[in-house]
Design goal:
It is built from four helices and eight strands. It has helices at residues 2-13, 16-28, 142-157, 160-165, and strands at residues 33-36, 52-56, 59-66, 77-83, 94-100, 106-111, 120-131, 135-136. A four-stranded mixed sheet has the order 1-4-5-8. A hairpin with an 8-residue loop joins strand 6 and strand 7.
Length: 166
Amino acid sequence: FGPVMVAPVIMAFGNREQQTRFLPGIASGEVWWSQGYSEPGSGSDLASLKCKAERVGDKYIVNGQKTWTTLAQHADWGFFLVRTDPSARKQAGISFLLIDMKSPGVTVRPIITLDGAHEVNEVWLENVKVPVENLIYEENKGWTVAKYLLGHERMGSGNVGGSRRE
């Protein structure tokens, strides 16, 4: 998730400090990432998310749940979509936060699939303090970032180059 998903986002939308801080660990493979997008009861309606981040001084306080979070049990960091303005229309009130998965209040619980594997998880966020400097782009503009990331993800999983070659 680091090189293919969050690195392009940080390169396109992150500030110089974020790029300097996060990109080297992604490039070296030393830092593992997970994606916190899906939520229980949301289905494919990504903009219906309820995981909330409230700004208090120089931190966001994050509360909510994510589900189907692939390999979160191994992640050092996660990139999360959170609701920062509950009064805005669905897509307008979302922000894109980078969250240290070792933060107090982050709980990862396994979802064991039918084949007995543990690849996906529930992630609970309870009063997790996230520094404001971990906000990518602008508050309430995370939908723009999410669309960019999903475009990158779909192009990579679609294997456009290989398909064209064949």
